[in-house]
Amino acid sequence: MLIGVPKEVKNHEYRVGLTPAGARELITHGHEVLVQQQAGSAIGLSDDNYARVGATLIATPEEIYRRAELIVKVKEPQPQECAWLHSGQLLFTYLHLASDSELTQRLIASQATCIAYETVTDARGGLPLLAPMSEVAGRMAIQAAAHHLEKAQGGRGVLLGGVPGVTPAHVLVLGGGVVGINAARMALGLGARVTLVDRSLARLRQLDDMFGPQLTTLYSTTDAIEQQLPHADVVIGAVLIPGAAAPKLLTRAMLKLLRPGSVLVDVAIDQGGCFETSKPTTHQDPTYVVDDIIHYCVANMPGAVARTATFALTNATLPYVLTLADNGAKTALLADSDFRNGLNLHAGNITFKAVADLYSNSYIDAKTALAATT
Question: Which of 31, 270, 295, 346 is labelled catalytic?
């Protein structure tokens, strides 16, 4: 198979979908790899690194999209990239269609087969291709919060971990998944007081075993969240419904319960955000203020630590890329129901029910859609 790796074009996005080591694995399997020039140069993966393992360097993204059978990316394709996609082509990347109706319509029009990292599952019901970036984003959320709590950034002027004789900051984490666990770990490590809310009693028990009395856990209700907000310096939004829009756990009216200069970090922004007042931001302009509350809603948080994030992501995605390249999408996806859960669009049809329901589009079961493919 001919695999294409374009350079990412989203604002301040420096990750790359395939490392030279990954390209070498694919080439060893008999495949051809096309890599856009400078695709990984920003994170120390030079064109020479790719050329030495046998990848072909391509000057323009248009040629990558025109020639490649499988496009391997990191972030969702931007409008121009959507225009280059075509029928019969495979796209393997993060899509987050639940937060972007325009992207969904562009990809439907392209007739490409689109597999989303974030909805591939494993035998335990986990999200193996989302987890690495959730780990990164959860840890980064605390770094971002600590920075924006500084007075010079508009925050309350509170040191996250405090000092002897001075109360540390209080961090409220909404959601006990991978993001929430990593945010709690980082915040506790810096000395903050941390409360985490979740609706799974099993997860709360697990977290209690994991962190002990350092972490306060609460069953998530609107009342429980409202009671915590007056004491919170930071709120981390870490809720996830795979492939669907995130629930709005904080309304605008609830902002008045927070103290001016408090910081909201919405890690769920790729799925529409879990605060009513959230809107996507970029690393270039990461925050905005609503009712004296700082909102940090960067939609590609791991892009700030692009080298670490690239290696974490591609360690997880490479086995799936090899499976697609070795077997083709139809065979690979029909043989593995967990991998098939990643199929969001095929030949102009929505094959992920949560996305179809959100946009009131017709839905075709992924297995049925694939079986109909010649």
Answer: 270
